[in-house]
Amino acid sequence: MRVNGLTKKAIHLLSAVVFLLLSWQVLSFILDTPVFPPPFAAFTSLFHSMNSDLMIHLKVSFYRIAVSLIIATIVGVPMGLWIGKNKRVDAISAPLIYLTYPVPKIVFLPVFLILMGIGNVSKIVMITLIVFYQILVTTRDAAKNLQKEYILSVRSLRANERDLYFHVYFPACLPAILTSLRLGLGTAMAVLFLVETYATREGIGFYIMDSWSSLAYEQMFAGIIAMGLMGFLIYLLLDACEKILCSWVNP
Amino acid sequence: MDYLSISSLQVDYNHQKKTNPALRNVNLSLPRGSIGAIIGPSGCGKSTLLSVLAGLNQDYKGQVLLNGKLPKETGEAALILQEYGLLPWKTVWDNVKLGLQIKGLSKTETADKVEQILNKLGLFSLRKRFPTQLSGGQRQRVAIARSLILQPELLLMDEPFSSLDALTREEMQDFLLQLWKETNLTILFITHNIEEAVFLGQKIFVMSECPGTIIREYVNPLAGEYSARGQLEFLEISNSLRSCLRGREKTCV
Questions:
Q1: Size of interface A-B (CB pairs under 8 A)
Q2: Percentage of chain B with pLDDT > 90?
Q3: Total-model pTM
């Protein structure tokens, strides 16, 4: 019997899940400590916690990460395209980006907490700023390296600047944008955890650290699984976007 | 009066505060509904000449007129680039409709015109494919469809068949000829292939390099004859053209 691509992918995914659970089980058995409970106990705790307050924390975290990714994309993509398209703007902005890009923005968290308060705003701005840089730089470089032939061919059809952005720059850079979003998601999840461990009583980061300090390790792992699943779901969403919007890459 | 007329054209490129001459004293004319071929060594400014005619390069000296008007004003020229210039992220349908979309035509009118041109060029069954899923010949047809849908008066082609194998190249030459006979377009194309220039070009312009200028103009009575390829006269013109090109070869400094 021939196995089609989708079934094959599902089998591979299932194999990876089984492998991870088995490794977890073995590690838990070797360590033999309540700090590292076996998967069954952690998933049982996750199931029970879902009906209590875990969902509330998960919703708050999802809101923070989703808003951050959306804002970073809305601001970063047009800016990256604009800089990449215009040599002069690139020449002016390059030193600024070059100097500020390597600075770890997370060090400004205390400043943001003081300036913007301990609510959602400071956390969202922190995550947005970090992801924004990744999107900006990737988009700019993709736009800069675009084959001149595409631009010339569309210009020969009497295209104006808006047409060039819409028909050439944006679609050509979309695969790179989605890749940077996927990479940015990993960073954003890490930053989310960190910002939720300070001056807040909401969010999955708080839930994990609160469980840890209460010595509720199974509950702590329920939080870790929930956070992992949230990241995985957003990743799948980005994957689906790529399949729909960039079907031309691997037709 | 000739449809296309160029006199004393001069184009320079500025690079790192240095002025490099690309074209000097180019004089060329082509009657409406005829095919002109430009042949010459690489880097002699042939593509620059086409970009001026397409209205993409307006930084020139001299006079360039299409139907008595400046290229930018007429909008009558369509340009097909060497690698066809198709956008890989658009399907055949979307590539072909692009010009009309930019023009702002209504969706129904655009769809009707795209369907019509795709059917005419035998591309309708390929409409959902992306350029990477097409052969070289099919891509060239799509590029031609994208230009023809705008109903241009002048079709400019930059080495249109250079990346095709010998057989497909001949098929495409025949196809272009047939298209020209049906539409009566004025066509000006660049080629490196001597036989192609003689087979298609009613007027053949030979260019020299650095800076590019037209050094000789052939009036070719054999152009457009399907049976011409094997004839003695065809070979004679080809050989004459070959000698002319060889005699003018020089190293660019």
A1: 63
A2: 25
A3: 0.84
Question: Does the beta carbon of B170 lie under 8 angstroms from any beta carbon of chain A?
Answer: no
The pair of structure tokens assigned to A28 is 């838990």
Chain centre distance of CA A162:
29
Select the residue of A156, A159, A172 nearest B89 (Cβ to Cβ): A172
A163 touching B (Cβ < 8 Å) = yes
pLDDT score at B250: 43
Closest by CA to A143, choosing from A111, A173, A188, is A173
| Minimum distance, in Å, between the CA of residue A158 and any CA atom of chain B | 7
Structure tokens at A150: 């595409």
How buried is A80 (Cβ within 10 angstroms: 0-12 exposed, 13-18 middle, 19+ buried)? buried
Find which of A69-83, B130-144, B149-163, B206-220 is predicted with most confidence, using mean pLDDT: A69-83
Provide DSSP, B92-152.
HHHHHHHHHHHHT--HHHHHHHHHHHHHHTT-GGGTT--GGGS-HHHHHHHHHHHHHTT--
Which residue, B33, B45, B25, B24, is CA-closest to B4?
A: B33
Mean of all residue pLDDT scores within chain A:
91
Look at residues A173, A168, A145 and name the one whose alpha carbon lies nearest to residue B95.
A168
Which chain B residues are Cβ-neighbours of A247 within 8 angstroms?
130
Category of A173 on φ-ψ map: left (φ > 0), alpha (ψ -120 to 50) or beta: alpha
Amino acid at A161: E
Chain B residue numbers touching A248 (CB-CB < 8 A): 88-90, 130, 132
> A171 CB contacts (<8 Å, ≥6 apart)?
B87, B89, B90
Kindly list the averaged pLDDT for each block of 10 residues, start to end, along chain A of length 251.
Answer: 74 92 94 90 89 88 94 96 95 92 87 88 93 94 93 90 95 94 91 88 91 90 93 92 89 73
Q: What are the angstrom distances between the C-alpha of A161 and each of A74, A158, B200?
A: 19, 10, 36
* pLDDT score recorded for residue A3: 62
What is the least distance, in Å, from the CA of A154 to any CA of chain B?
A: 8
Residue of chain B with shortest Cα separation from A155? B56
- Domains contained in chain B, CATH given: 1-76+153-253 (3.40.50.300), 85-151 (no CATH)
Which structure tokens are listed for A90? 């690139």
Which residue do the tokens 């400019």 mark? B156
Would you call A150 an interface residue with chain B, using a CB distance cutoff of 8 Å?
yes
pLDDT of residue B126: 93
Res B207: pLDDT: 87
Which residue reads 């397409």 in tokens? Answer: B54
Q: What pLDDT is stored for residue A2 in this prediction? A: 55
Surface-to-core class of residue B108, CB atoms within 10 Å of its CB (0-12 exposed, 13-18 middle, 19+ buried): exposed
Biggest CA–CA distance in chain A, Å, is: 71
Q: Is the dihedral of CA B83, B89, B93, B96 positive or negative?
A: negative
